[in-house]
User: Fold this.
Amino acid sequence: MYFTTYQSPLGEIAITASNQGITALAFQAGNAAITPDPNWLKDESKFVEIKTQLDEYFSGNRRTFDLALDPKGTPFQKNVWRALCTIEMGKTVSYGDLAKAINNPKAVRAVGTANGANPIALIVPCHRVIGSNGKLNGYAGGLGLKSKLLMHEGAHFKV
Assistant:
């Protein structure tokens, strides 16, 4: 397992990776901060591409990420996370919309739980999921960060 940090305009981000791809990305000021394991390796060559793409995202020159991902989760969670990756920058969906997108419209709560368990923030854009009333709810990085990300992306939501 590999580990690095990235200084974004919105605060420090921790990133972990396996040889297969990115396993986790977390804003360190949020509730899902990553604590480095002493056995993890610090090999910056594993993170050149993600740091380049994050630079491009934060400068407004990237709308989608193209990275190998290796999140750990159940098949249901991975299905939800794949659906999250289809939400275009500048758009938002509700938990109900996301449940419909995975052909399981009654699984709204389970979708919300899977969304909250997403280990790869930002790249797997769980911040683009809002309440059916258009208001922000739940984000491991905090609602302030969620609103900043959505504003950066040009998304509309209610305060």
In short: The helical segments are 48-58, 75-84, 95-101, 108-116, 143-153. Residues 29 and 67 are 24 Å apart (CA to CA). The chain is about 30% helix and 15% strand.
